[in-house]
Amino acid sequence: MRKIFEYLRRLKAWVEGYAEKPHAAWALFIIAFTESSFFPIPPDVLLIAMAVSVPAKALRYALICSAGSVLGGVFGYFIGWAFFEAIGQPILQFYGAMGHYAHVQQLYNEHAFWAILSAAFTPIPYKVFTIAAGTFEVSIWTLIGASIIGRSARFFLVAGLFYFFGAPIKKFIDKYFEILTFVFLILLIGGFAIVRLFLK
After folding, report:
1. Whole-angstrom Cα distance, residue 176 to residue 170?
2. pTM assigned to the model
3. Per-residue pLDDT of the chain in tens (200 residues, 90 and over written 9)
4. N or C terminus: which one in the chain shows less Cβ crowding within 10 Å?
5. Domain spans of the chain?
């Protein structure tokens, strides 16, 4: 276990070093975009590393992350709307969201905005809901509106902590890195579990 955490600390140091590079903002945008449509790893990891490295730019990074994520959500919507069988279905199968269409459709008919908003803000895999929104032809404006609110609230909350309390939070992360790693993994796995439970 110690070797695993040593590796993770080295990985953390590499990510923080990468976060200071000029093209890191583009990498953040691309990761945020792809995570909203098919990529499994959330952009929060790089966002936090960049906010830790340059707290003064944390809110700018949150804006980049939010923009990339919302646009990626629109792309996920397009996948569900135009290429569901070829692309969307395999992605939903990966997240265990297939076989519950009737429930998802009913959910979107009754609470589309709140369902998307919840997925945008929480660890629930957001791409499942963006693709499903396209499949069931939820209003694109509902998707965009809920995504802007949910994604911005999530990323600006994270970035704002580093913007206002950068140094103390960095010390806290360094001190409790192992515990925070466990918490992050639990949240990530929990998000997948919630999707399976939520769609039953």
Report:
1. 10
2. 0.76
3. 555 545 445 555 555 565 666 778 888 898 899 988 887 778 887 888 788 878 888 899 999 999 999 999 999 999 999 888 888 778 777 766 666 555 667 778 878 898 888 888 887 778 888 988 998 889 999 999 999 999 999 999 888 888 887 666 666 665 655 565 556 556 555 555 555 555 55
4. N
5. 2-198
